[in-house]
Amino acid sequence: RKEVEQDPGPFNVPEGATVAFNCTYSNSASQSFFWYRQDCRKEPKLLMSVYSSGNEDGRFTAQLNRASQYISLLIRDSKLSDSATYLCAVNPTGTASKLTFGTGTRLQVTL
Amino acid sequence: EPEVTQTPSHQVTQMGQEVILRCVPISNHLYFYWYRQILGQKVEFLVSFYNNEISEKSEIFDDQFSVERPDGSNFTLKIRSTKLEDSAMYFCASTDGSTDTQYFGPGTRLTVL
Questions:
Q1: Which of A1, A49, A9, A55 has its CA nearest to residue A25?
Q2: SS3 A73
Q3: How far apart are alpha carbons B43 and A106 in whole angstroms?
């Protein structure tokens, strides 16, 4: 099983749609979880950290399910500018350790 | 807002040549990282660096790679003898250690011919 696994997509959705991505991780001891956004040939930019209680930032909601070892990202009211690749990242071992990334899920929002 | 910076943005080199990629982490950060991303593939961890020494490295980070913090601001990745398969985007990242959140620089695109 891959350390961090994501559906590569692409997800093609119309503007205004709600879209959800899942990411599974294999190491049950993983400590921290993140969603990054990556535009074509650019660096990963932090979208949000994912907390056990779930967290929301505007149109974005992240959830963590430790029992099933997955995290999710929900985007409401999609905008054209949301088109990007969304990377799931997991810190497997603790403070300031490396991040292990998934392959990313590509989102294309259309008119 | 403080940012991680990297130079050069694009480096073209001949196979077998040495390259040095440069990064300036965010100024109060203590933990530094290099990642690479081959075109069309995922971001992969190379090495982490703390307190002037390597704290962790991946299998990719073999004897051809080295890292250095030559002064109080720069963090460098050296590839001694580049191979074709070293062609990738190389990202530097840093964190202050109070959280695990890492901030990435804009990357250096390395092309080995």
A1: A1
A2: strand
A3: 14
Chain B closest-CA separation from residue A42 CA (Å): 6
pLDDT digits (tens, 9 = 90+) for B27-85: 989 999 999 999 999 999 999 999 999 999 999 999 999 999 988 789 999 999 999 99
Contact list, A98 vs chain B (CB under 8 Å): 33, 45, 48, 56, 58
Q: A43 vs B58: CB contact, 8 Å cut-off?
A: no
Identify which of B41, B89, B50, B47 has the alpha carbon closest to the alpha carbon of residue B64.
B47
Across the interface, of B58, B91, B97, the residue whose CB is closest to A96 is: B97
Q: d(Cα A9, Cα A5) in Å, to the nearest integer?
A: 12
One-letter amino acid of A49: S
Nearest to A100 among B45, B91, B93 (CB): B45
